[in-house]
TrEMBL record:
This is Transporter. GO terms for molecular function: symporter activity. The chain crosses the membrane at residues 12-31, 43-67, 88-115, 150-171, 183-207, 219-243, 255-281, 301-334, 346-367, 387-408, 429-447. CDD domains: SLC6sbd_Tyt1-Like. It comes from Billgrantia montanilacus.
Amino acid sequence: MSTHNVWTHKGTFLLAAVGSAVGLGNLWRFPYLAGENGGGAFILVYALTIFAVGIPILIGETMLGRASRRSPIMGMRHLTRTHNTSRAWESIGWLGAASAFLILSFYSVIAGWAIHYTGQMFTGSLVGADADTIAASFDALLASPGLLTLYHTLFIIASGLIVGMGIHRGLENGLRIMMPSLFVILLVVLGYGIANGDFGAAVSFLFTFDIGALSLEGWLQAMGQSFFTLSLGMGAIMAYGAYMSSEVSLTRTAFAIAIVDTAVAMVAGLAIFSLVFGAGLDAAAGPGLMFVSLPLAFAEMPFGALVGGVFFILVLGAAISSSISLIEPVAAFLVERFDMTRPQAVFGMVTASWAMGLLTVVSFNIWAEGTIFHALFGRSAFDFIELLTNIFMPLGGLLIALFAGWALTHSEVMKEMRTSETWFTIWRFLVRFVAPAAVAFVFLRSIPQIEG
Ligand code: PFF
Ligand code: NA
């Protein structure tokens, strides 16, 4: 069971964690949720929760992994024993496994759209196409449950194979090249958006903070997104933390992850909204926002087919380095709880998540608005699953914050954090009081809205 081997390179944790953090959450989910929730107000809540709640929890979650040097469930069990606290804290493992399972189910479907667009780009099918043609082609993709299921299946199999065969190591070198390339290509798209779109409108949309404009559910979505984007509250970061070398400063690493992640989201948001406003598209278009606006830019820019093809491959790389971090802790959980072998555990998780993903697939066609699921739950199955993750992730994060803040001793924390007393005091205040209060506040605000 143990995980005493530690990653040899000091930078490996950072790379793996950035690989987990940067993904569809930044490129697809952040812009679409910001667009649906009026831009600036959403971003303000999102940014505040990243810095006041997300970073402290990121430090706490890594700390729990590194202090226990075990996978999440066994790690929590070990820590509850050594600290004489309740085994109820193991629920962090259950909650995390449930969130990971739900997230992977839709993550894989959306990553499937990127597979489709990789093909569309390289075959040049959209070269020179106008906005209407591109929107129609996206609608046609969504209208096909068969095609969506095919791509979803391909993506989830690829992710499962990587985790099952343990080829993380090869991925490490891949990430070192892919992550910077993705950032560069995003900057190219942003440059195109500045030159040909409406950058001014994008800036004022994203950075005009009218907090009153945020709906109650918008608060929950903004906070949920800050956990989602940093991969928090599910054991993913804890599982990686278990392999992290003891010499590295947790504080510095956590800031680095959050800064890189936020930078990618901001550049993606600015690029996408410049194009959206330039072309007169609807900012509140929903989950299709990225998949309509970016292909439009690639359709018109010089060498767009090539740039677009490479872009979508990099998106897939970012998505897969995130999806493997969703599978990893659940697989470890199944191995520990139910004595499965690793391949069985991965197979079980992936198959169940795949089946669950079919609910997302049909949300865009057979069960779209106006059909049975909507009538029963007032939203699509996909929206419902997203809502659950917006609740589960902060809840898991809250438990992690409370445990790290209240159960761990001063010397244990100092050994992990390697910072000054001042930083320690700030951190502990944030995880003990601020993070729990913020999560409770957002929950209490938004719950009446969800019921009603
Ligand atoms: N952080 C990833 C993203 O922004 O795309 C999504 C994610 C990965 C969430 C891993 C949670 C997780 F455990
Ligand atoms: Na992210």
